[in-house]
Design goal:
single chain; mainly alpha; about 0% strand; globular; QueT transporter family protein; transmembrane helix
């Protein structure tokens, strides 16, 4: 894992972070019916595992999540709660030494967007239903599909060198 820090004055870092943000947002927006709603198979979430290898992906992924949430029907709630959940998950992913365990943090932090839904609907029943749907969706995308993809990618030394030196 990289020990590099963020340098927001570094044009190269800003361009890379912007590219990651755009990739995240575009992947989300390609399948909006899957990305928004109670069952969120947001395939862009696979990218969150990049943080496991290098924390310098965090700013771009946070921005990408924020931009993608602008297209949500619940834009205010998703901007606040969804982006916060991502940021908090990233802060724990970067400290983890096991990819699968790291993949569980985005799943666990789905309680935050579920709280946003609870505030909107004022229903504890809706909270638990939405929470379970969000967590299962996130688990499928990040902890199953994402971990499998990154375990395959780990075998490509050249790609991993690029990721670790981002």
């Amino acid at each position: 894992m990289s020990n590099q820090t963020y340098n927001f004055k570094d044009t190269n870092f800003l361009v890379k972070s912007s590219a990651i943000a755009a990739i995240y947002a575009v992947i989300t927006l390609i399948y909006p019916a899957l990305a928004y709603g109670p069952i969120q198979l947001r395939f862009s979430e696979i990218l969150v595992l990049l943080v496991f290898y290098n924390k310098r992906f965090i700013p771009g992924l946070v921005l990408g999540c924020f931009l993608a949430n602008l297209a949500s029907d619940m834009v205010v709630f998703d901007l606040i709660f969804g982006t916060l959940a991502s940021y908090l998950a990233f802060s724990l992913i970067r400290k983890q030494n096991n990819l699968f365990i790291a993949s569980l943090f985005p799943v666990l932090f789905m309680f935050i967007p579920a709280i946003g839904t609870y505030i909107l609907l004022d229903s504890s029943t809706a909270f638990f239903i939405i929470l379970i749907q969000f967590m299962i969706s996130e688990f499928i995308v990040v902890s199953i599909i994402g971990v499998i993809i990154f375990k395959i990618l780990e075998k490509n030394e050249g790609l991993m060198k690029i990721i670790k030196n981002f």
